[in-house]
Amino acid sequence: MNLKESVSSLAKDLLGVMLLLVFLLLFFNTEKIKGSVTFSNLPDSLVNVNTIFISIIIEAFPFILLGVFVSALIQIYVSEDTIQRYLPKNAVAALFPAAILGAIFPICECAIVPVVRRLIKKGMPLHVGVVFLVGAPILNPVVFASTFYAFRSNPTVLYSRMGLAFVLSILIGAIIYMIFRKQKDQLKWSKEELIGSQVTQVITSNKKPNRVKQTMYHAADEFFMMGKYLIAGAFIAAMFQTFLDRSILQALGSNEYSATFVMMAFAYVLSLCSEADAFVAASFANNFTTSSIIAFLVYGPMLDLKNTVMLLAFFKTKFVLVFMGTVTIVVFTSVLLLHFFVL
Fold this sequence. Notes:
- There is one protein chain.
- The chain has one domain.
- The longest helix is centred in the N-terminal third of the chain and has 34 residues, at about 45-75.
- By secondary structure, it is mostly helical.
- About 80% of the residues lie in helices and about 0% in strands.
- It has helices at about 5-30, 30-35, 35-40, 45-75, 80-85, 95-105, 110-120, 125-140, 140-150, 155-180, 190-205, 210-245, 245-255, 255-270, 275-280, 290-300, 305-315, 315-340.
- Residues about 195-205 have low confidence and may be disordered.
- Helix 6 (about 95-105) crosses helix 10 (about 155-180) and helix 10 crosses helix 16.
């Protein structure tokens, strides 16, 4: 690492620490700030935005912390080869274990795309990687816990989210298999491009890497990466709840078709981390139908704006477009079926 890269890395670390200190300072002095003249003179709408925003952040951050540390441990200590070894070679038979695998490893959609890319590069079939891609961000235990906590008064949301995610991940994987079974290579990068930098690093370094430090660095990077999406999403949700006319919300939320479509679009644009999206979804529970909330919780982790950018970087454009269309149609249709025949 040259001097310029070192200074840039140090500046980012210092900025992250400063932001964290500011957050802690504001958190522990909330009552003083509330009682100040400046705060009391703020419009009620801005106070309401602040209240909703802070409540979402405080509820979600413990799950973010738990998720990034477990994800970092898996990243450093669990080999992709080990995961691949336990998957059946038969194309159809591998779908179910892949969904089970997604329920074991707490990897959110913020990190799942590069992980699946590496798995496919090491020999995992494309359709099995897709099952892991759409299933793992929802089925993992951290997301289960956060959804349970956010919707503890309405467990239907929790069970519907987990059940749909499991079934739909297998269905989407099967559809992708049927479409691309003769065009299995849908990655943009070759194996040499993927492992070249790793080989160079091993050759040029005689020191054994410190796994504890690697784990901490990886957890810190993921924390700040996930945190910025959570903060942005929480802020937009707070603004949305405060300034959008309630009559518009009620009109959109009362119709099952429009409510489902709007919540799916909202999930795509917000690009929330799956370990925290339940808290944002809970803030809309009074304005949208239960099934549209479930659509938000299922669709967002499977496909969102930041995932689309990453997919286009790692996969061929045709595959990404087919994947996006498949996920959108399958989730929208299944949620409507769930509403009319189950809920």
